[in-house]
Every structure is written in structure tokens, then in C-alpha cells.
């Protein structure tokens, strides 16, 4: 039994073999067998779900949304689990950061419009806090731009529609991201305590590596320092299913992102690290970017819109370096905030 598993009471993940089996098995049961009602057996009644737009506390809403997606994408929707990075949170709880590669064919009406008959592929990270066998809180990052692109739907049309909704507006989201209730207040040291609670006293060197990487490279803009933290052969798959490989292209991918919001800061909200003899050491990181759309006009003319991005990164760690990253965030939410602040909602990007 691994050290991490020995930290947990088996009731935390029963009747499954371990937290990884817990997440993968019931996810397949719900989506492959099309039984969204079973969500009631795996989510707490007052589950708190953080998305790129808002925060919900309604279990039945989770079931309703799942039902609609099953109707729209009857041959998919749930996706295939790529990895589960899990870590204990006390004797009866754990973090499960579930990375999913989603595919499907748009065969039924959906929130984005009538069926297109087209396929999509995208990636999602569901970072879940499980207590006594039930998910009680979830941080969700989805690449919705990739979904819309695959379906041939204009992402700006969707962003304009969402900007008119409430509370899905740039100002509302900016307030939510700064309120204590929405994201759990400021995090002093995510290596010790994150939004999911206290971490085990384990893998602290890896946590420091990740903290320093975000601080030096992302926040201080010392992009040349990436060599201190990442492998020369680093691989990264980010939004729109874009892939870069090698340190120099990787550094430029970060530059391209931050240049859109040149005054931004990035705060780590949560870290989970899991070591496995077969898969290796992986880290799941939830981060929050705060800035204004005042730099590179990637999303059309800049307008100073306050932007908050809830993102997730899964890292694979080899020989004390970050060797692979899967980065997920919702660009449609970014575009919605820009439109809500008076942006024109058009771009050639």
C-alpha cells in the first residue's frame, strides 16, 4: 500500500480500490451507462461547484446539466479519463483532480443551438474535494473554445449571449473572484494549505518548485528562469488543443498568454501531488489569473476589461523538473468578460 493510501480510511473511497478507481469507475457508470441520477450517490446535497463564470450550490442542477449534455451528445459527453491526481485531505477525504479528454457528436439540441452533426474534442479538469465518499466541492476548468470550434459555432456569438446573462458578466465575475466566499480567501502558502484544506506534509520540495515557477516565470516575467524549473524537452498541451514542445516554444506560449493581460498576476489556489510507481509523479494545480485586457489584442481591440481566469494545470515531474503540462481554462469566459465590459466581440485570432 502506498504512503498516500495508508493515510486514508478505506471508507473515504469505498467500495472502490482507491481514489483513482473511485473517480474513474463511477464516472464511467454515469456517462457510459447514461445514469445521471446516480450523481446523487456521489455528490453531497450542498455541493459547491466553482466554474469560470460563477459558483453553484445545487446538486439537482448538476444532474440537469448532465442530462442536457447526454441528449446533445448521445455518443459521448463524459469523455475518457486521462489521469487522476489524488492526494489525501485528512483521514476521510481526498482531492481528486480528474483530467478528461472529451469527444462527441452534436446530435441533439444544446445550449449552443440546434444540432450541427459535427464532432468536437476538448479537455476538462475536474478538481474535486471528496469527503466520506461524497464530492462536496469542485473546481471546474473546461476548454469550451475547442468545443465551439469543433462544432463550427461562432464563439463570439456565444460570448455575447453569455454577457447578457446574470451573473455571467465580467464585473460580476471580477467581484466573485475577489470575494472570500467564492474562492476561499487569499492563500498564504498553498504548499501547506490550499482551498481544499491542509495538505499532507509530503512532496514539499515539489510544491516549492511549482510555487517558484509560477512566481518567477509567470508573475515576475523572468521567462529565462524557466530553464530552472522545466525540462529542455518539456511538452505542453493547452487550450484549443494546441501543443508546444521544447523549452523555447514553451516560454513563448506563456509570453503570448500573459501579453494579453500585461498587468496580470497569477495566484496558486490549490496543489495536489501524487506519486505512482507505474505512472510517476504528477501535480495538479488550480490557479487564478487576475488582470485587465490591455495588452496584445488577441481577442479584438483592447478595452481594459477586468478579467479573471480560473485555470488548471496538470504537471508530470521528472528528475526535479516539470516535464509535461496539460493546461486548461475557458476562453469563452474570458471573451464574455471582455464583451461585458464593452468589447466589440470580434477578432481574427
Describe the protein:
There is one protein chain. This protein is α+β, with helices and mostly antiparallel strands and 349 residues long. It has 2 domains: 3-160, Roll (Nuclear Transport Factor 2, Chain: A); 176-340, Nuclear Transport Factor 2, Chain: A. Helix content is 29%, strand content 34%. The chain has 10 helices and 14 strands. Strands 2-1-6-5-4-3 form a 6-stranded mixed beta sheet. The longest helix is centred in the middle third of the chain and has 16 residues, at 204-219. The protein is globular.
Summarize this, please?
The chain is of the alpha+beta class and 349 residues long. The protein has ten helices and 14 strands.
Layout of strands and helices, then pairs:
Blueprint: H1 3-6, H2 19-32, E1 43-50, E2 55-56, H3 59-72, E3 80-88, E4 93-105, E5 119-131, E6 134-142, H4 144-151, H5 155-163, H6 170-178, H7 180-183, E7 193-194, E8 197-198, H8 204-219, E9 230-237, E10 243-245, H9 247-258, E11 265-276, E12 280-293, E13 305-318, E14 321-328, H10 331-340
Parallel strand pairs: 1-6, 9-14
Antiparallel strand pairs: 1-2, 3-4, 4-5, 5-6, 7-8, 9-10, 11-12, 12-13, 13-14
Helix pairs in contact: 5-10
Features:
six-stranded mixed sheet, 349 residues, 14 strands, Nuclear Transport Factor 2, Chain: A, 2 domains, alpha+beta, 10 helices, globular, 34% strand
Instruction: State the assembly state of the protein chains.
Output: single chain
Largest sheet at a glance? 6 strands, mixed
**Count of alpha and pi helical runs:** 10
CATH class division of the largest domain: Alpha Beta
Which class do the helix and strand fractions yield? alpha+beta
* Total separate domains: 2
Order of helices and strands: HHEEHEEEEHHHHEEHEEHEEEEH
How far apart the termini lie comes to 49 Å
- Spatial shape: globular
CATH architecture of the largest domain: Roll
Number of strands: 14
CATH fold-level topology of the largest domain: Nuclear Transport Factor 2, Chain: A
Strand order of the largest sheet: 2-1-6-5-4-3
Level of helix content? Answer: 25-40%
